[in-house]
UniProtKB/TrEMBL annotation:
Keywords: Magnesium, Metal-binding, Molybdenum, Molybdenum cofactor biosynthesis, Transferase. Pathway: Cofactor biosynthesis; molybdopterin biosynthesis. It holds the Pfam family MoeA_C. This is Molybdopterin molybdenumtransferase.
Amino acid sequence: MSVTWDAARELAYTTGRSVQIPTEKVRVDRAVGRVAAAALSALVPLPTTDVSAMDGWAVAGEPPWTLGDPVPMGSRPDAEPFPAGTARAIPTGAAVPAGASGVLRAEHGRVWPGAHGTVLEPSDDAPPVSGANVRRRGDELDAGTPLFPAGTLLTPPRVALAAATGHDRLPVMALPRVAVLVSGDEVAAAGEPAPGTVRDALGPVLPWLIRSAGGTTSSPAYLPDRLDDTVVALAAATVDLVVVTGGSSHGRGDQLRHAIQSSGGEMLVASVQMRPGHPVVLALTSDRRPILGLPGNPFAAFAAFLSFGVPLLRGALGLPLGELESVDAPEIVAQVAPTARGNAVIVPVTWHAGAARPVEWRGSAMLRGVAEADGLLVVEAGDGAPRVRRLGLPW
Ligand SMILES: Nc1nc2c(c(=O)[nH]1)N[C@H]1C(S)=C(S)[C@@H](COP(=O)(O)OP(=O)(O)OC[C@H]3O[C@@H](n4cnc5c(N)ncnc54)[C@H](O)[C@@H]3O)O[C@H]1N2
Ligand code: MOO
């Protein structure tokens, strides 16, 4: 049941899609990074009325004009009558008074004291003022214009747009709740690891990785390499998704596969044609909650989470899986090809003047390489045409 990297990714995504995530409403100032749970449309036109596009004077009728009071920012367009032959200083963005013929820019007018007040005239090089420098009501959009469909990632500009059209609260997908179980009798939660133990390198960072992929989680729970404990922990994780580290392989102490099977779960992916990370597990609990089993080797765990954990969460949130950017890296293909044996190889690289260079220390049990890297490449260098894609990093 070993599947290709792309097939496993697709399956992780569709498994995520099957998760029922509720929706909620959040204040706009909490909405960035969330996913719209419903289509949103504009509540008001933008601009809401004709507004000045420049600092200058709103003018009525033909020049010369007599200056009246300045237009205050925030005033309504019909606040005061605006007779022909008059002008009022107006700031950028203020409502153009009803009856104005246009806005004369500040640099295109001359003022001087006249017998009945200050007089304004266009300077000799001023372009025609009729209809000029006014952003019309609804120029950008009308009330009711669709802003974005359900399933849209709410980026800062999208939330800004929703706020600009009057939304105070936005319907969003709730954050998928993820439980993190860190397994291994040898894994120490804190301090300097004694010989024979390893310090947990994954528990401290998985919550951040999960949050950056759109989920929510609390502190990891530590799990001994015991079947009954693993079964109980999987059953007790009343969340939307479970991520388990370690114990995903077929060794004597590796309990995850046994625990899934003995508790009536279903294996979806038992191994992936990738290096590192091939013992990754994708499964469902008996009540259909997805389980992602990450290999214990730390670089393998990073590779597997970014390859499948992110698609799982994107699916749950209703986001598209997304395409990975293809890159041209013939030297890396040449290096990887002799040992790839049909596997997708995850290569940590640094970028130098547009070219990727593999880092050292990239063994699956290591962290130095991935810590130094500023990119991860998915390299397929088998019999077919070689392909290199960039795996998005959330940091
Ligand atoms: N006979 C075979 N042995 C192994 C195979 C195989 O195919 N046949 N695959 C190897 C590969 S590849 C990997 S990756 C690992 C995966 O093993 P598990 O997921 O079962 O993980 P463990 O055995 O529990 O641990 C492996 C390794 O990682 C260390 N570890 C575990 N958790 C953590 C943690 N939270 N922080 C830091 N380090 C951790 C653990 O101490 C082990 O050294 O299996 C290979 N073996
Ligand atoms: O998942 Mo393993 O990393 O290939 O060592």
